Amino acid sequence: MELKEILKILNKKRREIGLFIFCGGLLGLAASFLPGKYNTEASYFVGRTADRPSTEFFTYEGYYAQQTAQSYTNTAVGLLESQDLKRAVLEELRIPVTDTSIRKLSRSYRVSKNGPQVITIRVSDYDYNKSLNTFTVISSKFLDTSKKVNAGSDENISVSSLSNNPTVKQEQRPFINYVAGGLLLGLVSVLLKITFKEYLK
After folding, report:
1. Where are the transmembrane segments (predicted)?
2. pLDDT (tens digit per residue) in 11-33
3. What is the domain range of residue 14?
4. Which of 38, 83, 114, 136 is a Cys-bridge partner for 131, taking CB atoms 3.0 to 4.6 Å apart?
5. Same domain, yes or no: 137 and 65
6. Together in a domain, 22 and 74
């Protein structure tokens, strides 16, 4: 089919194309007003006390303590992502421990290493109370597990929250992105419809 014929068909269907694009834009606009997820977030600092405190600016003990803490930060991230911790969290929340529930829990929170000794946990859920409650249980199990691990390896290592209470924020859906996405969806939909209709003639 030549370009001239394609343009001719599109010109005939311009009202239909405009209607689909308009409806797509309205759909994107409506989606932008849907309530977003609640993100509950807090950061934790991993530190280690030097064996022999000193007033000197730099000591080998201080350097060793810092390096050990930085290394343990990776271990702490591993603990947060471990299946054992997830099972303990589900049991605390009184949710049956199944492969499905573990996958669902895994998708609901993220662990990020924001610095050599800083870990951030973020829990997302459409329900405010569920987001906060799940975060509280994860945080509690994480700190308890860290203490147990440290007691058997290095008691000088500590994991502490950087704030007394986690921050809870509701996601704001980007208005422009959703409307633009809706317009594009409408355009693609009508072009596919016209293409199949012409092909089946």
Report:
1. 17-34, 175-196
2. 777 888 888 888 888 888 888 77
3. 3-34+174-199
4. 38
5. yes
6. no
pLDDT tens figures, 43-99? 998 877 654 444 444 444 555 456 666 777 888 888 899 999 999 999 999 999 999
**Backbone torsions φ then ψ of 116, nearest 5 degrees:** -55, -30
Nearest Cα to 17, choosing from 199, 195, 178, 186? 186
Structure-block tokens of residue 5: 């014929």
Q: Give yes or no: residues 102 and 157 share one domain.
A: yes
